[in-house]
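Thread: Newbie trying to understand structure tokens

Hi all, I'm a second-year student working on a class project, and my supervisor (Dr. K.) asked me to get a predicted structure for one chain before our next meeting. I've only ever worked with sequences, so writing a 3D structure as a token string is new to me. If someone could post the tokens and maybe explain what I'm looking at, I'd be very grateful. Here's the chain:
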Amino acid sequence: MMGEAMERYVTREEQREVVRKEALDAWEHYQSTGLHVTGAEADVWLGELELGNEVEPPRAHI
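---
Reply by user tm_fold:
Sure, no problem. This is what the structure looks like when written as tokens:
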């Protein structure tokens, strides 16, 4: 039982580290390029996906 708990803990921490690294990479990319998608643009896109519409994601812009 203790071994399973440790395994789950390690798995969660590894997953957290992957997410953290992806976020840092995205932030560095934004800082170097200025490319971004606004929250409103993302909301519209996600809303379309939620309705079952297959739409392209919004294009990043400066």
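A couple of things are worth pointing out once you decode it. Residues 49 and 55 are 7 Å apart (CA to CA). Residues 2-33 form the longest helix (32 residues). Feel free to ask follow-ups in this thread.
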